[in-house]
ABC transporter related protein
Amino acid sequence: MQEKNNQNMLLELDRVSHFFDQRLVFKDITLSLGKGQVLLLAGPNGAGKTTLVNIMTGLIRPVHGTVQAGVPSGKTAYLGHHTFIYPGLSALENLRFWAGMYSLDRSEKEFLDLLALVGLKGFAYENARTFSRGMSQRLSLARVLMLEPELIFLDEPATGMDAQSRRMLREEIGKARQRGASMVWVSHSLEEDLDLADFVLYLENKKQAYLGPAKDFRDHCRENQL
Ligand SMILES: Nc1ncnc2c1ncn2[C@@H]1O[C@H](COP(=O)(O)OP(=O)(O)OP(=O)(O)O)[C@@H](O)[C@H]1O
């Protein structure tokens, strides 16, 4: 995907293997992600996608191998199973809180514009405790967009989202990619999402069954009956 030690390299995994209680999840994952590249991470349930994202973000230390990130932690963002939403705060207060955490100077109008972008304008002052799964996911997306990260981890970000929200999500992913952000994106909707990706890593049978250009993945699936 990129030459090793390239200064545009944002994430590099070298022979990463992981076990839970002696049970192998996957072995020997080696990849580099460059600036502005989108890696789609796919595979059947239980293949190890979330585990690999957790290793990439540093939440889990791999049993073997190394992970190097070329961006400071303040320039990475995660949208996935944990929404990081404070249920006792309104949508706007959540954004204000996160902005404070990252020392970002944002006006009330900017918060409201962000909430409008993710379709939550009418809920800015509502307590986040009352939000559905899809609404919480949209608020979490607003947090990610506010950070303008260089490296974004998306673990099934469309979970709980309706068709309109999924379209908005894909549009925002496209915009982030255009401004040069890199992404690792776990998806179960390959047909929909493949066109926004540069590379695909397909995990199956405890190894990388495919790692290569997204444009060649469909042919690979046909040839290998995936
Ligand atoms: N904390 C844990 N302790 C023990 N086993 C775990 C733990 N987390 C995950 N596993 C196991 O590791 C394997 C990979 O799980 P993981 O959640 O990474 O898969 P996934 O590809 O993300 O699955 P899905 O598509 O269902 O979300 C599974 O067999 C799972 O049961």
